[in-house]
């Protein structure tokens, strides 16, 4: 099961690269914020349809959840605007490696301290080495 989940998140990462490739030109044609809005509009419509057909009808109320859990609603558009602006300027590879470096760095901190309800996983040497390799990739791509 873990292998399937790993392959699934790799596919999701590939999808983000495609999204960045689509957002750059779209942002240049219609504006960065309109491009972001259109991506979220299409995503919201698709999610709504998926909810209609696949979501359990007796799930807890959306409004009963802690407010801090809704921060993703703010972070998502910020992320997409950053993709839209950065991708045409620095390229998809540089953008994605930079995003990955930030994700891994912050993820190590969240895991280490068990923040946001995540299980506690200590930062160890292997995790630090992985981050160093990602930063090295960022430097190498920037120089290439």
Q: Quaternary arrangement of the chains shown?
A: single chain
Our Rg estimate from Cα atoms comes to 18 Å
Helical amount: over 70%
Overall mean pLDDT score? Answer: 92
How many strands in all? Answer: 0
Number of helices in the DSSP assignment = 5
Low-confidence stretches: none
Distance between the termini: 38 Å
Derived structural class: mainly alpha
> Tell me, what's the shape?
globular
Largest pleated sheet: none
What series of H and E elements makes up the topology?
HHHHH
| Percentage of residues in strands | under 5%
Describe this structure in words.
- With 144 residues, this protein is mainly alpha-helical.
- The chain is built from 5 helices and no strands.
- The chain has helices spanning 2-30, 32-54, 72-90, 92-113, 125-143.
- Helix 1 crosses helix 2 (32-54).
- It is globular.
Overview features:
globular; 5 helices; mainly alpha; 144 residues
Secondary structure layout plus pairing:
Elements: H1 2-30, H2 32-54, H3 72-90, H4 92-113, H5 125-143
Helix pairs in contact: 1-2, 1-3, 1-4, 2-3, 3-4, 4-5
Task: Give a brief outline of the structure.
The protein is mainly α.
């Amino acid at each position: 099961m873990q292998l399937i989940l790993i392959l699934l998140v790799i596919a999701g990462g590939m999808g983000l690269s495609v999204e960045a490739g689509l957002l750059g030109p779209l942002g240049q044609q219609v504006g960065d914020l309109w491009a972001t809005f259109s991506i979220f509009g299409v995503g919201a419509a698709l999610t709504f349809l998926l909810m209609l057909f696949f979501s359990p009808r007796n799930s807890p109320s959306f409004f009963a959840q802690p407010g801090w859990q809704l921060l993703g609603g703010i972070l998502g558009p910020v992320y997409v605007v950053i993709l839209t602006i950065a991708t045409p300027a620095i390229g998809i590879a540089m953008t994605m490696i930079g995003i990955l470096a930030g994700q891994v760095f912050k993820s190590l901190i969240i895991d280490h301290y068990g923040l946001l309800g995540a299980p506690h996983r200590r930062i160890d040497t292997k995790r630090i080495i992985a981050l160093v390799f990602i930063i090295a990739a960022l430097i190498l791509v920037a120089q290439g």
